[in-house]
Write a structure and sequence with these properties.
This protein has 357 residues and is mainly α. It has 30 helices and no strands. The longest helix is centred in the last third of the chain and has 11 residues, at 248-258. It is flat, with a radius of gyration of 35 Å. The chain starts with a helix and ends with a helix.
Length: 357
């Protein structure tokens, strides 16, 4: 890269420039000796010299390389191939099929509309190879000569959607939901009621693995231009109550019942808990109160120092380091502040004296 950047082609040119170039002086004086290779090989790496195409074909044949993808894959770890250009067809101005012919292989012809097989034959090949998705087809086609005889884009070649090809293979494929095909909201409500779906997160989670739900739009509020709470009223299940309808006392009771002490734990649990999803995401913002005050109201704040002292004495904890170490695996200690001196504004020695009383 350095030689290419500086436009150096010959060893003499390298030595000449090296006299006054600090960057080149950081490199060995004799590059061929240092890297155990001829200067011609260095030039090949720079793309300045390329062997004749017949020589390239001979190397590929020796290494059993048939396809361009296979060449690129092997080239990553093969020093001999790294001396050859990365893109052989471009550098030699030939198609890969021509390189294959030079190797004595039966080169694969590009598929044209005239010689492409009927779709029924394509379906048989896909079924035999266990290919269901277009992604898998394109991936396998890179190294499979039989698939390379088929068009790369089956959907364009046969003027049909991939879902139609899947149906011809006998797969049960959900129909894509469009404005025209989406069912009326009343029918959606019946499905939700039957499956006891209350919240939107619950719907999205179940939809990942439920074919019936996959036939419905991903975002129901967007598709039907209505709020989720209105959909739930149609469902007839417990609808989402607007957050301002929850008094702070009700919120406190829920937090107490679920043992949620930290805001981070509340946000984490809220992702999968429908009851918590009925509450505002940010309780401090919704109720204009600090999280610490919520903790105090819920009785989740730090216990009195006498209580802490009793716990420490019972567990035989005398030093702060011992407390920190034991706290990692002790659930009772995890209910206490991680830094007792900071939390109670007193030295550890004072806490220790409290615990020895």
């Amino acid at each position: 890269e350095i030689l290419q950047k500086k436009g150096i082609k010959t060893q003499t040119e390298y030595w000449e420039k090296r006299k006054s170039d600090p960057e080149l002086q950081l490199l060995p004086f004799n590059l061929p000796h240092a890297y155990n290779m001829k200067w011609k090989d260095i030039q090949r790496l720079m793309g300045l010299i390329k062997p004749p195409i017949e020589k390239v074909a001979e190397i590929l044949q020796k290494k059993g390389i048939k396809t361009q993808t296979e060449y690129w894959e092997k080239r990553k770890s093969d020093p001999e191939l790294q001396l050859l250009p990365f893109n052989l067809p471009r550098d030699y101005n030939v198609e890969w099929a021509e390189i294959q012919r030079l190797m004595g292989l039966d080169a694969l012809k590009r598929v044209s509309n005239k010689d492409q097989p009927p779709i029924e034959e394509v379906v048989k090949i896909l079924k035999r190879k266990g290919i269901k998705t277009q992604t898998k087809y394109l991936e396998k086609r890179k190294s499979d000569p039989e698939l390379q005889k088929l068009p790369r884009r089956l959907t364009e070649a046969y003027n049909m959607k991939w879902e139609d090809i899947q149906r011809l293979m006998g797969f049960d494929v959900p129909t894509r939901v469009t404005k025209k095909s989406q069912p009326p909201i009343e029918k959606v409500a019946k499905i939700l009621r039957r499956k006891s779906i209350i919240s939107e997160p619950q719907y999205k989670e179940l939809r990942k693995s439920d074919p019936e739900l996959q036939r419905l739009p991903r975002s129901l509020p967007q598709a039907y231009n209505m709020k989720w709470s209105d959909i739930q009223k149609l469902v007839g299940l417990k609808a989402v109550v607007r957050t301002e309808d929850h008094s702070l006392e009700e919120v406190i009771k829920i937090l107490q019942r679920k043992g949620l002490k930290l805001e981070s734990k509340y946000l984490e649990k809220r992702k999968s808990d429908p009851e918590l999803q009925l509450l505002p995401r940010s309780l401090p913002q919704a109720y204009n109160i600090k999280w610490k005050d919520i903790q105090r109201l819920a009785g989740l704040t730090k216990p009195p120092i006498e209580k802490v002292a009793e716990i420490l004495r019972r567990k035989g904890i005398k030093t702060e380091s011992q407390y920190k170490k034991q706290r990692k695996s002790d659930k009772e200690l995890q209910q206490l502040p991680s830094k007792l001196p900071a939390a109670y504004k007193m030295k550890w020695s004072e806490i220790k004296s409290s615990s020895s009383k």
